[in-house]
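Good day; I would like, with your permission, to put a structural problem before you. I would ask you to consider whether the tokens describe a fold that such a sequence might reasonably adopt. The full record is reproduced below for your convenience:
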Amino acid sequence: MSAPVLLVAGIVLLTVVGIAYGGSFLLRVVDGGFPVNDLQRSYFRAGHAHAGVLVILGLVVAILTDQPTVPGWGAPLGLLVLLAAVLMPAGFFLSVVGRDPAKPNGFRLLIGAGAASLVVGLVGAGIALILAGAGLG
């Protein structure tokens, strides 16, 4: 693996500590130790789940697209999956901050931005890997 991908992988692995802390926060929410409304509870769960899954998916995509036969544009597009791992959970968490919000605030736009980043990253990385596998990279 290249040095930049090793650096990104190391940073990503360290973020899992933050996700684990988020899991302990979520347990306090579910156990009633942190007062939230139903909207907040749902968004906190969604944010935590998306963070965990997208960080692992992003790490796998980064490793796959760092292969020498993959076109050079594949790796940067693949990193958009890791960007989605930041944007989507941030949107879920930040859009329901405050005392007992009745609906999500403007930070909800980060969820859509993260979804767009995820789709572009996966499609780009997928095409790059197919081309590499077909010997066209």
